[in-house]
Amino acid sequence: MYSSTFINKTCLAFLFLLYFVGMDLLLYFRVQYYDVRPPVNDTRASPYYSPILCDLNPICTVTVKAMTLDHPNHYILSPLASLMDYLLGISRSWTWLTPNAISFSHVVVAVIGARYVTRSSLFHRRVGVVLFQIRAWLDDLDGHVARTRLNVKGERSDVGSIGYLVDGICDALGCIALAVGVFFFLKRNSNHRAGYELLPIRTLSSSSSTSHSSVSSNSFWRSPLYNMLMVGLHLSLTSIAWNRYISVYQDLLESDFSSMISREDLYDRQTTVFRSSSFWAIALAWKIFNFHAMMDYMLLAIFLDRIWEYVRFAWWQLPTILFMLILVSEFHYTYTYVKISSGNDSLRSSLYALPDP
């Protein structure tokens, strides 16, 4: 018979899943009536009436980054950061608090959270998970404050700016802190907790030195150090790939990058790609498998006391998904770049043949 705790967790997870799916559906229909680059004096686009302030509504301003942002950040943490800024007036009144200072503060929170993640007590590890969620919220807050002070609407990456570099470095430090915390937990508990014995740290052999060397080598390949190095490599590759496609799709769909066609024609082509089912599918895939989503899954595994199951899945199956996603994204980006930038009318007709919903 299932315990009440298990039932409560299952119900809570189902409610979150239902909320995320519902918000994805609302975002999908919002995109179908959204001009990512509306032409000047355009009267075709119907106005969007948000029931709440647009800054607090995650589907009000649609951008490439917003469409590829993970579900907890996009639909929970980012609106909460906007709400906090709205209530306290951080962007307007707290001029002494810079976005970079907020970025550095969430590194400190991550280090404290990592210390809790190393504990043997599940309660302490769950405290660490909460602290990492606070770190993620602060990460959203620094971005929101920076964009508000620069009068930038919606989620966007200011690639190459000092703030972009500082935020990236602080995110990397937070990720490293979490990975180190998980490594020390696995190292201390691999021979003591059920499930973690699959990661032997030492295997003794009374046979020959050759046999001992073979066992030691096998122990390393199955050790917490090797496994967490593989997880760290996967997170790094995911971050690099995700940020690349945010950058290139922003340039493709949110800038006047082509001089071969008229601006009006360029806007029409960008909007067509933005609304296409092919781009939606790629954006949704990155929403589920981006860097922050991988961090979310690791934190969920810690909360549910399933760290080793996540580690085994993350350094083999997930990289396979990542490489497939990179391959599809690269093909789609190259194809749409040629179609949008070309001045050939026949190529334009082929662009409009992209799969639509």
TrEMBL record:
Gene3D superfamilies: 1.20.120.1760. This is Ceramide phosphoethanolamine synthase. The keyword Oxidoreductase does not apply. Keywords: Membrane, Transmembrane, Transmembrane helix. Pfam families: CDP-OH_P_transf. GO terms for biological process: phospholipid biosynthetic process. One of its GO terms (molecular function) is phosphotransferase activity, for other substituted phosphate groups. The chain crosses the membrane at residues 12-31, 162-186, 279-304, 316-338. GO terms for cellular component: membrane. It comes from Cardiocondyla obscurior.
